[in-house]
Amino acid sequence: MIPYEDVTEEIIAKEAYKIYPYGSRVYHTASEISDYDYLVVLKPDSTLLENNSNFYTFNDNSYHLYGYKNWVEGLKKGKINLLEAYFCSSGVNLIEPIDVSKDLIRESISATASNSFVKCKKKLCVPEDYNPYIGRKSLWHSLRLFSFGIQLMEANCIYDYTVANKWYDDVVNIDHPGTTEWVYLKEKYQPIYNKLHTEFKIAHNNHKEEFIHLI
Fold first, then answer.
1. How far, in Å, CA of 113 to CA of 189, rounded?
2. Which CATH number does 4-95 carry?
3. Residue 179: is its pLDDT beyond 90?
4. DSSP 8-state code for residue 212
């Protein structure tokens, strides 16, 4: 086992089976101060997670570590964050191919998007939790997730990571004087959220018995 304080970027690279970029750099919403986020799948025989940490930061680079077995199990369960990373890479990713149920993908996306929308209100309206930047980004993520979900249902992959960027500036970066942020965002984006949710459910119903084949 390598002690936490001795782990370096070079060691992570050596222990990695696959390294995927993810987050704002993939969505093309990053600013000049945004970190570079990476999802690291470790080799099956790696012991790097035995030091009880799965997150490391070096300067502007952040690494989120997954053991190979847990990564595969997460993909099988349709975890949207793992599928996002998976479709950033072409070619062979897995030691053995797997099939992912679109029903499980629907469950993962629906729960995550709903939680993100609720988190927006909490971060904008609850004084002890007040964090407008996190709240506004949470709303945008809820729109992004349903947009990605529609692609997964209809095309069996995520092919456009910028699909929700048309809402990004208005939701995240622009202040709206004369009203509270939550009132403005709810009035404008609740209907868009509902529409995307409906489109996602329709896309799932049209393809719910299908699986996505991952290699």
1. 13
2. 3.30.460
3. no
4. E
